Amino acid sequence: MLELLSLTAGYDRRAPVVRDVTLTLAPGEAVGLLGPSGCGKSTLARVAALLHRPDSGRVVIDGEPARGYRHRAPRAQRTAFGVVFQQPRQSADPRLRLADLIAEPLRATGRPEGAADKAAETADTVGLGSDLLGRRPHEVSDGQLQRACLARALILRPRYLVCDEMTAMLDASTTAALVGVVEEYRRETGAALLAVGHDRVLLDRWCDRTVEWSELGSRHDGLATAKPPAEQSPSVR
Amino acid sequence: MADLALPTAPGRVARTARTWKLRISATLVAGFVLAVLLVPPLVGLDEQAVDLGAKLLPPSLDHPFGTDDVGRDLLLRCVYGLRVSLLVGVVAALVATVLGTAVGAAAGALGGWTDRLVMRCVDAFSSVPHLLLGIFIVALFRPGVWPVVVSVGLTHWVSTARIVRAEILSLRARPYIDAAVSGGASRLRLARRHLIPGVLPQAGLAAVLMIPHAIWHESALSFLGLGLPTHQASLGTLVQSARGTLLAGDWWPTLFPGLFIIVPTLAIAGLAGAWRERLNPRRRSELML
Amino acid sequence: MTVLSVRGLTVRFRMRESAPVRAVTDVSFDLAAGECLALVGESGCGKSVLASALLGLLPGNAETAGSALLAGAGDDPATDLIAADEAILARTVRGRRVGLVPQSPAAHLTPVRTVRAHLTETVRRLTGTRGRDALRTATEAAAARVSFPAGHLDRHPHELSGGLAQRAATALALVGDAPLLLADEPTTGLDRDLVDRTVDELRRHTGATRALLMITHDLAAAARIADRVAVMYAGRLVEIAEADAFFGTPGPRHPYARGLLDALPERAFRPVPGRPPELAALPAGCAFAARCAHADTACATQPPLTGGLACHHPHTAPADLVHPPQAAEAPGA
Amino acid sequence: MNKARPGLPWIPMARMTGRRLLFAVPVLLAVTFAVFAVADASPFDPVKAYAGTAGLTASQENLDQLRANLGVDQPLAVRWWEWITGALTGDLGHSAVMRQPVADVIAERIGWSVLLAALAFVVAVLAGTTLGVLAARRRGSLVDRAVTSLAYTLEAAPTFWLGLLAVWLFALQLGWLPAGGLTDTGSTTVTAGQLTTHVILPAAVLAASQLPWFALYVRQGVGDALDEDPVRGARARGLAEHTVLLGHALRSGLLPVLTLIGSRVPELITGALLVETVFSWPGIAAATVQAATAVDFPLLAATTVLATAAVLLGNLVADLLYGLADPRVGFDG
Amino acid sequence: SAPGGGTDAKGSATGTAVVGIAYEPDSLSPLLGYGKDGNSKIFDGLLTHDEKLDLQPALATELPEISEDGRTYTFQLREGVTFTDGKPFTARDVVFTYETILDPKTNNASRTELDAVESVEAKGDHTVVFHLKYPYAPFAERTVLPIAPAHIAGEQDVNTGDFTTKPIGTGPYELVGWSKGEKLTFKANPDYWGGAPKIKNFTMAIIKDDDVRATRLRSGDLDGAILPPNLAKAFKDGNTATYAAKSFDYRVVTLPTGNKVTGDTDIRRALDLAVDREAMVDSILDGAGKPAYGPVPTDSPWFTEGTERAHDLKAAADLLDEAGWKKGKDGVRAKDGVRAAFPLWYLSGDKLRQDHALSYASDAKKLGVEVKVQAGTWEVIQPRMPKDAVLAGGGSPADPDFDQYTLLKSSLAGDGFNNMAHYDNPAVDKALEKGRRSGEHTDRQAAYDTVQRELVKNPGYTFLTHIDHVYVVDKRFGTLTTQVEPHDHGLASGPWWNVEDWKPAK
Ligand SMILES: Nc1ncnc2c1ncn2[C@@H]1O[C@H](COP(=O)(O)OP(=O)(O)OP(=O)(O)O)[C@@H](O)[C@H]1O
Ligand SMILES: Nc1ncnc2c1ncn2[C@@H]1O[C@H](COP(=O)(O)OP(=O)(O)OP(=O)(O)O)[C@@H](O)[C@H]1O
Ligand SMILES: [Mg+2]
Ligand SMILES: [Mg+2]
Asked: Membrane-crossing residues (chain D) (predicted)?
């Protein structure tokens, strides 16, 4: 069970992006998170995955409060999350071949034996061919890279998956395929899922429940809101 | 078929040029290294033998590089000098680069107060004028190769450290670092796997530049009368002591040692460039190797 | 009037160790003024490479063949985008005659400069606007056009959310009012509202004189504004159809295209079976054969693109109900 | 949350400056003590240095008396403490080699050194950056090779060598510039005109010796940036080549260059020392060597404090600049 | 030529001279040692040297009156001489100068040179009497030492006061400015008692690097400069004259008594025969010098005829063979298990000494003696002097006592840089003592002859060369002269030793 309790987070203490948000993922539950662009979904996802320290509030993982964020979080807590980031280009180290990219978490957590095979296997499940594994990120398409990122997120067999607009730049078939992969994985492991997205139809179809950003108790104002910014901006024609 | 219609891209020409450059660099480096390793055991050089009768002979078959102002064969001295200078240059560059990268990476990757403390120590270190420390170190021991190596190595790691740290600070904010953290990477792993490879080009450039710079230091110390014993052949001392003859119109005692500094440096730089691109291939350079 | 006419465009990437990657093979199509062509296809099939090829921005290991004739307009003569040299492309084509919304917008912004700096600079270069105030106004107008909040103009790329970066990139691409706009997934990261507004803006921008090539996976968005849809598979165009026919009845004719539509969450949400072929080792015949339920021995030869379709066993809809798309007629020959 | 027009981030910058000032005190104390300690440990004998050539024939008794007179027979810590306390009250002590109060030595010379070094540094940064950008533009081209070779050659060329060559060429062969000194050798007053002609050669030589690092780092930074997506984006927008180079590639690749601004200061001082010797430039750097070999503690400590201050300042400026240049780095440090 | 600094500008201003020198004085105060050997420009001594190095009166009206026992020197002072601040010069200034130098509180490293002085006494305004502790024949030579004004220098700290950098004297020139590390500028003293100098403005540019100095001379920036012989060779055009000043400046290898090899008289003598001095003069000095067989140059009146030794490798080898130094397998001789090998140090950075050391080693090698050349700073070398050979330099022309006593006297062995070889020869000691105390020239000549002959029998030093100091000066100053120069040749030497007497051509 993952509890996000009255989280307030952002990049400037005076103007937090996420305000007082509470969200709970029951064990094995898949929750879709919908919200307008720029409202703070990715920020929330990063906080949930212990990658960003909130200004206030708590993250409780299976009853155990998070003891820190980023490196301060114990490795076991950090690796309980598999994260697929919104922008695959940015979240892949340009120097690593896809095979290493996928295997890196295994090696980083001290399990280098058989990492390559395991990586190839996982790559296969997400539909990456072996010839792509030898390439570097700039030699593959964005969609292919996103598949590699999904494989990387799955390889440590996390208990929680955080997918931040994982399918935003994927075609329908690939989307369906990757959702299938995630579902298959969840069936196998009983992992819970937080899927961030814009596509209500997709999330409804994919997740056990879909929540709207506005329902999360987050009061927000300023520009990055559900209200289209254009309506506030005087310079719009 | 469309495949047949494909013209030769300009990339292919560039590739051959690159390959050639790499080959030439590699050959040169290998040649110099071999010369340095093989010649001294084969042809002994009495560092203190002079032949006042054969003073300042221009290049000839007997003396391909000519002789210096006390009649010593310049070719042999250049080879011996390269041996000393490569030792000075390479060791000093290694010390400076390894130390600098380690410290810079530690400061940059750990951040916070560690960073501040370490960087202030680096500041303190870097504020000791290089030549001054060189003078003291050389004076503490006696003039020779190791004091020069130590003095260059000990003073020059700081700039590498600062460059590495700055780059790491910038790399640290990249999203793929988040991914690595989430993948369970420890700080050390993060530094080793993601941050340091990212700064290696910078550190490598510093290392390559340090080689001629160390030779420079060695000759600057001899200029101040504190370097290697001036009768011992090193490229720095050769260049330094050839100045007088150049003004008197004899060019060879300057030209050849000068070439012996610059050509190996360029060759090493060429190799380093190739290595760098292999390590860090990017869109454009990918094919050119 | 034809804005862009692509003939036999082929792009290969030479690889150091493996066989060359045939990212785009023998692609031909025309794009008329006022037209919006949606290019769809499975991830990795070569859509972005096609767009890059049209801008001459391919990486160094790419080899190209074929032609892409950009119609002349005003003072500009017609230009073959594939053959033109870098100087011409840089000075007269990019930004001015061909605009691009890149697929990873955040990665295509310079990390150390603000969005405003990017926009202002582009506005100055492409529209010739001068003067602080004029530039400021023009910058903000450009941002507003794609609903980029003015308050975020002074942020650096890494401080933007995915959707904001996407909007910034779109704003940048629209500045030049180019006759041909290449939009590579212009709607990723945007919520439904914004998607609609963005594509409408793109459509409006296209008007009657400009052309839009929109690469997208978002079939809803494509349906909303596209005149025609092109389906790409393994580097080849396999079908070009009128959008109404494609999304409505009778629907696509190529089995792959049908599978693609079936994968939509609002439909079967079932992926096309099998996996995309490796572009470095394409079969001699139809690349889709391995995944196709209808495949037989005929599929061992490459089907030509005729009548807007390249398939030996097209879906047999009552073909007579469909007007043969005219534009698709022209290339194949 | 609406960020107003962004001025400079004054507050973090001020905080960083403050922290640095605080740190400067222990650093300065440590450095002066280290200098005293190292000088004390060095085999150089202040008394012999003071006596000069006369010392070679002086009797031991005479030398011992001198040692007592100069006060260098006291323990190291005592001398350091006296110097520090003296310095705090504004008395920097008396220089034995210069036979002058240290304050006078510095006052007379520092201006000239700062003039020389600052001029050279500005030239080195500008010229180095320009050459680096030119080289990076087309890697492997003739320009690139020329710049790279030049840079490595300059790096290897001993400064006194360059100086000699410059004098030979510009003063002797061409007769354009005077060969050395602060003013014409015969004149007794310092005029601006003379100063200008006299500073050109030494400054140029010093700049040339500092230039390789800038040129090569810029070349590398810009070259790498040119291969990356942001530049692709900038190109796609149709920006002018110089904007792409300077506004995007250079801006991204600027970080190491800014770092060099701080960390080249010690090298600059080292170079100045040799240049001042070669050109008979009456600056402080040349005095430093004399102070070192003569183990002139007060002068050595004072010049070290100056050098340290220069380095700390250089580093602070560099750190502030890269906080500004790369928002991802910030002002923590 | 350089704009503004070129010869055109100066061609008209013939009253101006700019010379380039390699050394910079530490201080300009005579009390701290400046100008102690005369020619100080700003100051005068009681006496001065002429071109032949004979003593001539300066601030004194004539040479001193010496008492019978040689322990009292009486000087009559010139009247009407003023310092450049207008104050008159009197006996008080003389007493002040000498007493201050003798005061241990004064940081004067050459105080030892006045060791013989017991007291100085003014008799009235214009008479000064020196009382010596012991008869010291060359004492008058020491009184070329410049006289400082008591009314200025006496008012401030002698070691740190202003006077050390802004001196006032009675000399032909006044200091205009001293830009340390760059130049010293002088202007003529119009009221000089010896007549106002023709060269109105005189500048000494301090250029440490030989090559730069040569280049600046070539560029017309300088009117004259001291140069190493190989660089001076290039100045053969019509506008410059080259002067090779004879000197007492020798290069010598110390053969320390404490070392089993160098302390061996046979080895010493063999080396003395084996070195090829002519070759060194020709190649290393480009002909600008003479072979040295002892501290006294062969053309000095103090030189003992017949002490020259020809280069004779064979004789040297025979000598060693006879003495039992037999060649071993490695070509190095040995005797009683002692290899004939020793280190030879030279001052690092000094090319002249390096080349001498290397040629010495090469010559020794031919003889079967292994000399290992090493470089170091004085700090490194000094502690090793009792055992290791050093390539040293020295020489003082004014009186043979000045350098021979400190070089050879056994009681001074190891005292600072005195008697570096720890030379110990009772006959020499006796002769040195006699030469220093005797007032009779013939006695002194005999004494120094003894020294030179002893040095042939037991050469504790291998003297190599006497070096000419080479100067290149613009011809428009006419034909100039040089003095015989000492080892240290700073401001006071060179053709400008008497710049106040130059008569530039119009
Ligand atoms: N590193 C950062 N520094 C400052 N502000 C940031 C940073 N990252 C994001 N922001 C701002 O925080 C807000 C929320 O960003 P976030 O990425 O969480 O949005 P999002 O809901 O994921 O939007 P999208 O759907 O467009 O991806 C945005 O206004 C964004 O500009
Ligand atoms: N530099 C390169 N070197 C080698 N292969 C490349 C390179 N760039 C792209 N490719 C390959 O070319 C093919 C087409 O890539 P492209 O980026 O056009 O795909 P796409 O259709 O845009 O897919 P997506 O929807 O995932 O963005 C992919 O299979 C990719 O692996
Ligand atoms: Mg987001
Ligand atoms: Mg794509």
From this structure: 110-136, 157-179, 199-218, 299-325
